[in-house]
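User: tokens in, sequence out, please.
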């Protein structure tokens, strides 16, 4: 993989496909067939959040935004896949990626815990995967991110990471065409005591909401909405049929 963005320019004209695997895990597949996976999840010996193992997902490249258990199951990447978990500029085939370093939201952020937001561009469309970033980042981070079309943002009604007004402020600041909620409670995939909740109260405040019937959507630069829409994905069936994970006796 080249680290020089000029050596492999983004010359695809789309379309591309985005697939949701639950929590903060998404797979991009570009027109050229390049597959990128973000933030596969796992449990920890003292934290039982997921009732199923992260499924087998094809990818050429894995991106991990930060070193928390619900984002960093690098061992679930297929053999031969590359992995990026640092800031910088990267390019391969018809995909350009920019990792922008900032800090985690909430208490972890107060302790200086690093989070990498990933900006992915292909087919004339730019995406920003927030990871678990804070909302009030400084101006140099905003400039590094640049303009985006699709924002993947953490939102749930427990306000686990961001307050609703912080999510709204990000939308106002970045002006995305599409907003995709992530990092919320998913019945059947997650334990009942994660502390997370669905994002329904926040979604109810949004003027334009599109609930997808499945786990994937195809994007085209020519077909982006003229006004910001919230797109709610359904997690992939593969996430619900992967091997079950038993809760440890001590949890």
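Assistant: Sequence out:
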């Amino acid at each position: 993989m080249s680290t020089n963005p000029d050596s492999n320019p983004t010359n695809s004209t789309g379309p591309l496909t985005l697939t949701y695997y639950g929590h903060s895990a998404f797979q991009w597949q570009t027109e050229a067939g390049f597959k990128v996976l973000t933030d596969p999840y796992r449990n920890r010996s003292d934290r039982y959040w997921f009732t199923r193992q992260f499924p087998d997902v094809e990818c050429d490249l894995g991106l991990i935004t930060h070193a928390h258990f619900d984002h960093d199951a690098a061992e679930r990447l297929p053999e031969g896949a590359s992995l990026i978990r640092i800031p910088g500029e990267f390019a391969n085939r018809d995909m350009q990626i920019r990792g922008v370093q900032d800090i985690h939201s909430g208490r972890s952020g107060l302790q200086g815990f690093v989070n990498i937001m990933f900006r992915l561009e292909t087919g004339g469309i730019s995406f920003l995967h927030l990871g678990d970033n804070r909302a009030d980042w400084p101006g140099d981070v905003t400039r590094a991110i640049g303009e985006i079309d699709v924002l993947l943002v953490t939102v749930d009604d427990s306000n686990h990471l961001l307050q609703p007004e912080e999510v709204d402020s990000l939308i106002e600041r970045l002006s995305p065409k599409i907003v995709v909620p992530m990092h919320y409670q998913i019945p059947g995939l997650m334990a009942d005591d994660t502390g997370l909740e669905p994002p329904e109260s926040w979604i109810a405040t949004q003027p334009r909401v599109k609930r997808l019937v499945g786990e994937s959507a195809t994007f085209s630069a020519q077909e982006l909405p003229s006004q910001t829409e919230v797109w709610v994905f359904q997690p992939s069936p593969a996430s619900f049929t992967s091997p079950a994970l038993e809760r440890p006796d001590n949890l």
